[in-house]
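[RESIDUES AND BACKBONE]
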Amino acid sequence: MSLISLPAAFEVRTCSLRQDVNQRVAASQFGGSEQARDLLNDTWLMDVSLADSAHADGAWREAFIGSFRGQVNWVALWHFVRPQPRGTMRGTPVLVGAHAQGAASLSITGGTAGGTLLAGDMLGVGGLLLMVQSDVTLDGAGAGSVPITNRLRSAQSGGSAVTWDKPTALFRLVDHSGPVYSPGLASAPSFSFREKV
């Protein structure tokens, strides 16, 4: 089991990133009322496709697919459409204080003074890929509380770095289509990934 390097020529044409919430829903057999439980182990699912290409590109694409050895190996991926926040926060943000497993927000400092994070911006902490739930404006010291859509899967220490430039998580390849060759063309392969937990 090992980390695979993403090829430099891996240029994404389409990208879909969505959250798979670990939950249980049960209905009463008498009144029909329901109860939903959040089990706090969300994972990311990602579908990407590449562009059609020349035959030569089909070779490295086949090798990339083969290097996963099914779901044994993994690759670090980020949101290819939003590699940096749409908001203006940059700097070197860190967590303020310890954050417990299951936390629904990040307390940060060290971001851009008065910087913003917008709903859907991606951040990384301790190998977790996190999505900002709603717009936030940091104070004059670059500090603020940032609500996130997915809960912290593991506790995080105070002072942990908060990554805003291509925050990644590790993903396994769960499905794919390989290149199909026709005269002068290798069709675009597609990939389905699930976050490695």
